[in-house]
Amino acid sequence: MSGERTPRRDDGERRFLDAYDPGAYAPAAVTVDVVALTIRAGVPHVLLMRRSARPQLGWWALPGGFVRAQDGPDGPADPDLPDAALRVLSEKTPLPTELHLEQLGTYGALDRDPRMRVISVAYVLLAPDLPDPETDADQAAWIPWSALGHGDGGDRGGRAEIDLAFDHARIVADAVERARSKLEYTALATAFLPPEFTITALREVYEAVWGRPLHGANFHRKILATPGFVEDTGRLAERGGPGGGRRARLYRPGGAAFLHPPLLRGAQSSPAG
Amino acid sequence: MSGERTPRRDDGERRFLDAYDPGAYAPAAVTVDVVALTIRAGVPHVLLMRRSARPQLGWWALPGGFVRAQDGPDGPADPDLPDAALRVLSEKTPLPTELHLEQLGTYGALDRDPRMRVISVAYVLLAPDLPDPETDADQAAWIPWSALGHGDGGDRGGRAEIDLAFDHARIVADAVERARSKLEYTALATAFLPPEFTITALREVYEAVWGRPLHGANFHRKILATPGFVEDTGRLAERGGPGGGRRARLYRPGGAAFLHPPLLRGAQSSPAG
DNA sequence: CCAAAAGTGTTTCTAATACACCCATGT
DNA sequence: ACATGGGTGTATTAGAAACACTTTTGG
Q1: CB B81: neighbour CB atoms within 10 A?
Q2: Alpha-carbon distance A212 to A206, whole Å?
Q3: From the C1' of D20, which residue's alpha carbon is nearest?
């Protein structure tokens, strides 16, 4: 490792770039697909759309679209991939202001799209309970994870499974697994909740995503013992439970991104609390 | 969710596909970059190459190359992205038979390559100590993480930092962080070791990657208490330490992919044991 | 013999779990 | 009043960490 050079862009470099022909490459299409996850009434849902174009016209699929690589007639180039994900999603449904977006992975098998080679960068979006998409209800909808063919963890006793277009069932399954494991060691559960929430609401997020009940009392203590997870607002919820009950304290997300120690979903009956 | 349809490919679909023109899209180039990590003499290294072409001629960079989207003059199409990663890497250095390859993430900022819009799918490869690349030593080399400008954790007291081409410093930093966290909750540490190894060698992997000493006695017990992490071969190492010492038992990787419980790298002096 | 490294025993301490119980509110 | 849900106290238990010590080898 002797004599490291750290060359700066020189005249030769400039001349090379001026003469470069971008059309020489570019044999694959690049898309972004978004797995938007939320929890409605304690049940995890994913946003799906019916395909309005061939191929696989009429199938349920993830919202997605082509990355704008350069400025063009359709609009300016996407500065980065997350921008492309948000643009593509906002073209189909209104976006909440508070959200969490993270890259899930990239899918590029040769035969995943019958038209051509398509490389899809998938993103996971975690959002609080959103209104139904404003597009025609038959075109976009929040679908429970449990209704999907693969990768869920809920009960779907006898219900018909929904097949997704392309390899989107696999992508959703990967997204669900990502969400499940990230709740263990990050404070991401708050991304499913409004800006202020109760500890019970937070617990219900864990129970919905992990598909298993947690011990309320111990969960409560453990959340408060994890530094930076939540921050007390000093106020109380408007009212107690529907059938009576004490009013719960309201919290907002704390500054911490990672949880120390993590909330492990072990094999026991009610861990993490 | 009433009346789900699961349409099959019909005549209209077939006619559509026959008439489809793939050239209508394809505005971005897709590459794969590989962050190959190994440990040599207790020090973590990454495989880097000097760029032999413009742009950034002569800079250190990750091995990588364009994805073959279709069959062409250079060879057949890559069936999937991991195949592309292995092909690209094998074109530059011989590959070990035992290795772990996983997708790290995809980088697609508008200005990350001055030539054109390039979307790079990055892979992490964990490998046992490999021989030096057979290409010219000045063209490819194993470089210690600590020599790199960003994202390391080792000491580099006064040593000159190596700048990487494009956004590769960021990619390597992400790969290092991925490796560090995956050692916590998966059995991946064995990917850095030969097929049979001692518990001490395993501990040295953790110490190298995490950059911190661990308590040998407790580590030993904890590894053996984690089901499926390692499996006893019943044999002993050829000899003890250089200055004397008992011969260590040899183990091979167990079947488990995930560790229950995980080995947490907390903030204390010597966790995980 | 002595130093070095592998591995075990044991104590201490902290954190996870379970369960009992009190508090506050809606009906 | 009483049922419901929020929240705290506390005993039990499991696991993490620290340290002492035995075993086996090289020099």
Answers
A1: 22
A2: 8
A3: B217
- How many Å does it take to go from CA A218 to C1' D12? 15
**A131 in contact with chain B, both atoms CB, cutoff 8 A:** no
**Is residue B41 exposed (0-12), middle (13-18) or buried (19+ Cβ within 10 Å)?**
exposed
A77 contact B CB<8A = yes
A256 in B contact zone (CB under 8 Å) = no
Give the bases of strand C that a protein CB approaches within 7 Å.
2-9, 15-21, 23-27
Q: Is A75 helix (H, G, I), strand (E, B) or coil?
A: strand
Mutate to test the interface with B, among A102, A110, A139 (most CBs of B within 10 A): A110
Taking the Cβ of residue B110 and every Cβ of chain A, the question of whether any pair is shorter than 8 Å is answered with yes
Interface test with B, best of A5, A25, A70 (most B CBs within 10 A): A25
Instruction: Count the Cβ atoms, other than its own, within 10 Å of residue A237.
Output: 16
Q: What are the C-alpha distances in Å from A232 to residues A197, A240, B16, B241?
A: 10, 18, 58, 55
CA distances from A36 to A144, A175, A208, B209 (A): 12, 9, 16, 34
C-alpha distances in angstroms, B133 versus B48, B59, B60, B129, B141? 10, 17, 15, 12, 7
Q: For B36-53, how does the pLDDT look when each residue is reduced to its tens digit (9 = 90+)? A: 999 999 999 999 999 988
- Burial of residue B149 (CB within 10 Å: 0-12, 13-18, 19+) is middle
Residue ranges in chain A modelled with pLDDT below 70: 1-27, 133-138, 150-160, 266-273
What structural domains and CATH numbers belong to chain B?
Answer: 29-182 (3.90.79.10), 186-253 (1.10.10.10)
- Chain D: positions less than 7 Å from a protein CB are 2-10, 15-21, 23-27
B244 is near strand D: CB distance < 7 Å: yes
Comparing every residue's Cα with the C1' atom of nucleotide D19, the nearest one is B217
Average pLDDT estimate for B243-247? 90
Distance from C-alpha of B224 to C-alpha of B70, rounded to nearest angstrom: 48
- What pLDDT digit, counting tens, does each position of B147-163 carry? 997 644 344 455 568 99
Phi, psi angles (nearest 5°) of residue B56: 60, 40
Question: Residue B95 — pLDDT band, cuts 50, 70, 90?
Answer: confident
What pLDDT shows up at residue A137? 57
How high is the pLDDT of residue B54?
A: 85
Give yes or no for B80 touching A (CB within 8 A). Answer: yes
CA dihedral of residues A41, A46, A47, A48 (deg, nearest 10): -130
pLDDT in tens, A103-134: 999 999 999 998 889 999 999 999 998 777 66
Nucleotide with smallest C1' distance to residue A272 CA: C16
